[in-house]
Amino acid sequence: MLRPTISLFIEQRCGKMPLMADTQETYSIICKDKETKARVGKLRTAHGVVNTPIFMPVGTRGTVKACTSETLSQQIQAEIILANTYHLYLRPGHEIVQEAGGLHTFMGWDKPILTDSGGFQVFSLGPLRKITEEGVTFRSPIDGTERFISPERSIEIQNALGADIIMIFDECAALPNEYEYLKNSMEMTLRWAERSKNAHQNPDQLLFGIVQGGMERDLRQASAEGTVSINFPGYAIGGLSVGEEKDLMYEMLAYTAPLLPEDKPRYLMGVGTPEDLVYGVRCGIDMFDCVMPTRNARNGSLFTSEGIVRIKNAKYTRDFSPLDPACDCYTCQNFTRAYLRHLHIENEILGSQLHTLHNLHFYVSLMRGIRRAICDGSFASLATDEPDIRALMQLGQPTEDVS
Fold it and tell me: Are strands 235-237 and 301-304 parallel, antiparallel or unpaired?
């Protein structure tokens, strides 16, 4: 017997309130958890409504690796994906994507897309880049040519790509670093935020601000206050999970999230494990992205309700059980651990496809389960310091309603 659809579920738990509000606000909160800062909301974009909290599969170069758009939409039931401004600028070039009709048409995806600004990728270039007030000059890792991205250039590229949500150009400062450098970097990011907003030309795209400041509370607060004063339709927390200890990352996240407006979406960039997502939701975060589910899938590290399965292990050679008996994804319903191990050992492309489908299904189901738990009042009991990932994932298995 199928569980109630999510819309019926919320009507029953939230006083007959329909999931889709009648107002046309960019972001609306549907229900809140009474014991944590978790909330369920709806984010409206030019290509559809996104239910939050949400996980966004990463499609760096205009493709979520090893997944077709049909698989993402129909089997995984992803609602929004992320693409990378820096990589699409280098190749094939934003002009070509624009000529093709924009990124949605180019990659055959008709749901919402978020593009990051390229700031993190430029940061990761290290000695190949030079940062000034005007922007960043760097050598292309593809052909060695000199390139330049400024706040204005980043927004121009993102306007051309046509994503539904775009990001300001920021500096993600390396850690550890001197306090004075972090302060100067944070203040420059605020100036770049102003320039990004002034350069933005497409009213159909939501431009989000980004809070930086390293691991310094006073800098995080100053960054949040300055970014909020510029008035964006959404806000991201950047510069976390870049090498710091997890406890410190959690501490800074818990401190920063409440500094952002409650009536606008909050996005935690580049994080992380299933446990990280649950903790982020507890802090009031609405949007997440991370390469972990797709990268781990290709490396044979698979998320299940029983914990991580490293499929290359010899103990799975004659294991003819499903990868995860609690999961109803295509991979788990049709193939055994033995077969998946065989594909991985033989380096068969199908292995990467099936592993990726499962890992993304796991993440999307986890977020759906979190939304249901928030609205039925069980989230706080499941999202403890050692969250019950299994229960949340099972609660989020798809029903006839894919919201």
Answer: unpaired
Kind and range of the H or E run holding 114: strand 113-116
H/E stretch holding 35 reads: none
Query: CA-based Rg of the chain, rounded to a whole angstrom?
Result: 21
What burial class does residue 132 get, using C-beta atoms within 10 Å of its C-beta: 0-12 exposed, 13-18 middle, 19+ buried?
exposed
Is the pLDDT confidence value at 6 over 70?
Answer: no
From the list 115, 166, 390, 385, the residue with the least C-alpha distance to 254 is 385
SS3 content of the chain, % helix, strand, coil (to 5): 45, 15, 40
Cβ–Cβ under 8 Å, residues 311 and 299? no
Q: b/e string for 226-246 if b means 16 or more Cβ within 10 A?
A: bbbebebbbbbbbbbbbebee
Distance CA 207, CA 205 (A): 6
Q: Which residues of 134-161 are buried (b: 16+ CB within 10 A; e: fewer)?
A: ebbbbeeeeeeeebebbbbbbbbbbbbb
Place of tokens 């065989």: 342
User: pLDDT digit string (tens) for 228-287?
Assistant: 999 999 999 999 988 899 999 999 999 999 999 999 999 999 999 999 999 999 999 999
**Could you tell me the two tokens for 364?**
């999307």
Residue with tokens 């000695």: 127
Q: Supply the pTM of this predicted model.
A: 0.92
Q: What is the pLDDT of residues 317-367, one digit of tens each?
A: 999 999 999 999 999 999 999 999 999 999 999 999 999 999 999 999 999
Which tokens sit at 51? 């239910």
Active site residue 289: yes
Active-site residue among 33, 116, 276, 286?
116
311-348 burial string, b = 16+ CB within 10 Å, else e? beeeebeebeebbbebbebbbbeebbbebbbbbbeeee
Point out the catalytic residue in the list 164, 170, 289, 388. 289
Residue 193, burial from CB neighbour count under 10 angstroms (0-12, 13-18, 19+): buried
Contact, 289 vs 269, CB < 8 A? yes
Q: Strand 48-52 relative to strand 39-45: parallel, antiparallel, unpaired?
A: antiparallel
Contacts made by residues 331-340, CB under 8 angstroms, sequence distance 24+: 331/355, 331/357, 331/358, 331/361, 332/358, 337/309, 337/311, 340/302, 340/311, 340/316
Q: Using the structure block, give the residue that is written with the tokens 């919320």.
A: 10
3-class DSSP state of 131: strand
